[in-house]
Amino acid sequence: MTGAGAPAPEQPLIRGEHIGGIATLTLDSPHNRNALSGRLVAELHAGLVAAQAAPDIRAVLLTHTGTTFCAGADLREAGRFGPRDLVALLRAIVELPLPVVARVTGQVRAGGLGLLGACDISVAGPGAGFAFTEARLGLAPAVISLPLLPRLDPRAAARYYLTGERFDAAEAARIGLVTLAAEAVEAADGAEAVDRALAPILDGLRRGSPQGLAESKRLVTAELLRAFDRDTEALAEQSARLFASAEAREGMTAFLERRDPAWLR
């Protein structure tokens, strides 16, 4: 019980639930579109650690509340949450011995796209939308390229990195950003379509042995981890340099103020 005059306890930004061999971690920070704040990332790390420690868990399901899966880094925390913090989160997902599955029914941008790249399997619904908007802010998708470029079609990566165009779940599946685009089902909403597509995937993971899942994941993530080992320092430095630039400050300020940046005037 909270004493008189004491502040109310903060609500968690990650909600965790363990049912039927699956640890569900829900991004629950809709006020900033599930942006990657320092607190949300710390809670997500803790959720991954707890799932790994639970002997009955076979996989992690990463999902979200609201209409956005993840909008990327919280721009209001610039200077407190940096590129190496994001690298640590992405690598933790890739190295986790449990398969990590993403359930996407909303919009995904920037660091949220990196989360999808780090996940082993991802299913997106008809209401999902994607865009690499960094170039429009004076930035580049530097750190998130660690898990993404080994998975993405190179020509598609060039197009969407450079143009910032939005694309849907079907295109995301075609280019390798997500595993599966759930098709709309008559008289069902997008979330129901995603859950229907996820059911056989999660059932298959429940049937795996801990050793079998861990060693199989080790095989399919080997190339991603080589990219982390090879390119982390260069990409983290590029990201830090761009975020500190005058052009990026103008781009991020314009975004927050909902106006065009100076280079469009």
From TrEMBL:
<dbReference type="InterPro" id="IPR001753">
    <property type="entry name" value="Enoyl-CoA_hydra/iso"/>
</dbReference>
<comment type="similarity">
    <text>Belongs to the enoyl-CoA hydratase/isomerase family.</text>
</comment>
<dbReference type="InterPro" id="IPR014748">
    <property type="entry name" value="Enoyl-CoA_hydra_C"/>
</dbReference>
<protein>
    <submittedName>
        <fullName>Enoyl-CoA hydratase family protein</fullName>
    </submittedName>
</protein>
<dbReference type="InterPro" id="IPR051683">
    <property type="entry name" value="Enoyl-CoA_Hydratase/Isomerase"/>
</dbReference>
<dbReference type="GO" id="GO:0003824">
    <property type="term" value="F:catalytic activity"/>
</dbReference>
<dbReference type="Pfam" id="PF00378">
    <property type="entry name" value="ECH_1"/>
</dbReference>
<dbReference type="InterPro" id="IPR029045">
    <property type="entry name" value="ClpP/crotonase-like_dom_sf"/>
</dbReference>
